[in-house]
Amino acid sequence: MSHLERIRRPADLRRMSTAELEVLAKEIRDFLVTSVARTGGHMGPNLGVVELTIAVHRVFDSPAEHVVFDTGHQAYVHKLLTGRQDFTELRRRGGLSGYPSRTESDHDVVENSHASTALSWADGIAKANQLRGLGDRSVVAVIGDGALTGGMAWEALNNIADGQDRSLVIVVNDNGRSYAPTIGGLANHLDALRTTPHYEKVLDWGKRTLQRSGPPGRMAFDALHGMKKGLKDVIAPQGLFEGLGIKYIGPVDGHDIAAMEVALSRAKAFGGPVIVHAITEKGRGYTPAETDVADRFHAVGVIHPETGLPVAPSRFGWTSVFAEEIVEIGRRRSDVVAITAAMLAPVGLAPFAEEFPDRVFDVGIAEQHAVTSAAGMAFAGLHPVIALYATFLNRGIDQVLMDVALHRAGVTFVLDRAGLTGDDGASHNGMWDMALLRTVPSLRLAAPRDEDTLRAELREAVAIDDAPTVVRYPKGALPDALPAVARQGSVDVLARHGGVPRVLVIGVGPMAHTAVEVGTALDAQGIGSTVVDPRWVLPVSADLLHLARQHDLVVTVEDGLASNGVGSALRDALAAAGTDVPVRCHGVPLRFLEHASRTQLVEAFHLRGQDIARETASAVAALVRTTEPTSLPTEH
Ligand SMILES: Cc1ncc(C[n+]2csc(CCOP(=O)(O)OP(=O)(O)O)c2C)c(N)n1
Ligand SMILES: CC(=O)[C@@H](O)[C@H](O)COP(=O)(O)O
Ligand SMILES: [Mg+2]
Question: How many CB atoms are closer than 10 A to CB 557?
Fold first, then answer.
């Protein structure tokens, strides 16, 4: 039986010798590479926290002492050490989540994969512990250097510093990277601590001389090595955290279990807020990840474990189209600049940065700052394009509303991974953007259905300089081209089928392909329909209202919340106009979604063409039973 197989719960770790722990760390790395290569997942981040997580679970008594992981993508080792070692179905329906999950274990606290929240969670838990007489229990927050660039983290630090009598240990997992190297003043400060020249020289001296002078020398070095804090204070005074009133221990070699245990034990004994600054390496121990210049295997698909190469080559998808088109736009308009929140490559801005290095801004994991700084840029004569994953715009809705829209700023938001993403769990689905952005006055939102409409709608969005615009599209591969057969004002007509009564089938974005399937299926039952794509879906256009009035029933299909989405907006607009055409809205239900594939979720929510056609036919039958169908509108 391997050492890893002997671990059923963290207490089992505490009976292991130093030598056994080293073997365990290697077994865990081998497991991570083999297993995550097979399923895909966050390989690099988890390879970087093997020793750190072992040390945390040896020093702290989870679950009595809560361990909170920021973002949670680096919690695989935590799962392995807390009784979950079947990773065969990782991130798949019925398998382990790729993030902490309370239904999986009482060792897990935060399921939210949005970064920079862990310190706030820990602050709250520590306050509750104190009030409930549990103040002797430490709370531990493991936060990456990237997540530490998020504003929430500093709001939390400000409050944590106020709790000098609350035992709260912040483990900064500093690998110097988000996807790419972490940006900004904080990153530079951490870097300075990490690479203080005198500090390293003294350490090297210790390694060279003390370790060679027999047992006393080795003991002296171990004392020094384990107490890097002492060395650091003398050599690398650091004001940032201690200026806030938060004790700082480090930098510590995050891959040295013994050193981490000494630092964590000291932090635990301190009894107040402490930062343990661990220096780690993303992708550690796996050469393809260690040498990966892009993102150290931050998130991989299925790969060959020997080489790290993807089993299936990545396909030209939505992101690639945006990446090409924004460069074309940038060539034509020198006032267009791009903003990313620590995800330059994943959102497709790398080619733009390559060609216009001075016109791209990586603000760190700081979406709120990204949005409001864009309002500033627009005010001062630029047209910023902010590229985010849709779900992460949730973080900056107030800034969209009160800094961009209130001032009618010409800012364009490009939302990738909009709609159902699936395997990254509940908080990664881009399902809220249309419902949230529907409430923003003056904002206009486009949902392209294929490559051509993405290119066109992006160009149209950037051409609007006196109001916020949004272009949103899903994750992954592009669908086939879906050309319009006619245009009615601003609305693309995709198909027309004769028959009575007549249904208006509205497909939002990529769901236009589903809408066409619905029209075809209804036609087979003798039910007439007009299938359309409104292109600019919010606010609801007069052209769409006019079309709706010409039909007996309206069916909308969208890859976002059904409640308060585009269909709901159309229903409200028709009601406000005194038109009582019934509207059936098909979309994502208002609940948090278990991790599963997108296909599984589409099927579960009856969003396939055949599902919607079946439900629509029933609705039509009910309609016919209760009303005489209107005469066929004159064809246009
Ligand atoms: C609010 C938010 N924005 C963006 C992301 C996407 N994201 C996931 S992990 C990550 C990088 C995190 O870097 P760090 O905190 O240093 O952790 P590491 O991966 O280096 O362990 C980013 C930007 C996110 N999860 N949440
Ligand atoms: C944790 C996080 O937010 C990202 O790493 C995300 O998991 C990547 O998602 P994609 O695979 O869609 O780029
Ligand atoms: Mg990092």
Answer: 27
The pLDDT tens digits of the residues spanning 442-487 come to: 999 999 999 999 999 999 999 999 999 999 999 989 999 999 999 9
* Cα(352)–Cα(371) distance, integer angstroms: 19
pLDDT in tens, 155-178: 999 999 999 999 999 999 999 999
Hey, where are the domains in the chain? 45-73+102-287, 318-472, 486-627
**pLDDT tier for residue 634 given thresholds of 50, 70 and 90:** very low
Catalytic residue among 84, 266, 282, 359: 282
Tell me if 45-73+102-287 shares its fold with 486-627. yes
Q: Domain spanning 45-73+102-287: which CATH class is it, in words?
A: alpha beta
For ligand 3, a single-atom ion, the residues with CB < 5 A are: 144-146, 175, 177
Burial-class residue 479 by CB neighbours within 10 Å (0-12, 13-18, 19+): middle
Is 129 annotated as ligand-binding?
A: no
Pairing of β 336-340 and β 383-389: parallel
Residues 6+ apart with CB under 8 A from 507: 449, 494, 513, 514, 515, 516, 531, 532, 533, 557
Return the CATH number of 486-627, one of 3.40.50.920, 3.90.1170.40, 3.40.50.720, 3.30.700.20. Answer: 3.40.50.920
Is there a catalytic annotation at residue 212?
Answer: no
For the domain made up of 318-472, the CATH class stated in words is alpha beta
For the stretch 380-405, pLDDT in tens is 999 999 999 999 999 999 999 999 99
